[in-house]
């Protein structure tokens, strides 16, 4: 009887729960998934950054090679005498209006400000010229007028002018500085400085000029 009671009250084996084991396993799985996601995110960011860098490089190459600024084509089409006279004994200053055309040979618009022109005769400065601001669209030609004021006393002070006046032909030269800018691909703004040295022969009788396209150009970017 005593033996049966002992067996009846025999303590049970301790209960070991597996919940804690499963919890640790789940935490490890979650951590691994986070690491995998982080690696994928880093790879994705790296790819996007590389694409952006490549795109910027391509745009820069296009902007500074393919879309390199080219020299404009400049021509003086004609000169009109507005007032004054080239006759002997004339004392009033002479106003000339020059018809100038500029062809933009680039694939983008060239915008320029006021331009100043210095007029020379046989290497001596005899007057000034002024032209308004404007813009020349891509592959287009723009025409504008340049007003030139010739100081008669300075012209007559040049020894060779008296002979040329008798021949009714004046060899005029001019220097013009044009400051402008171009916008490439609607992204890059580049300043452009154009220098023009032109030489023409003006016929006093007819008002026509010859060698109107005799202009040397220099472009600084």
From TrEMBL:
- Which residues span the membrane? 41-67
Q: Tell me which Pfam families the record gives.
A: LEA_2 (PF03168)
Protein keywords: Membrane, Transmembrane, Transmembrane helix
Key word Membrane present:
yes
- Outline the extent of the Late embryogenesis abundant protein LEA-2 subgroup domain: 100-199
The keyword Transmembrane helix appears for this protein: yes
**What protein does this entry describe?**
Uncharacterized protein LOC113856673
UniProt gene name = LOC113856673
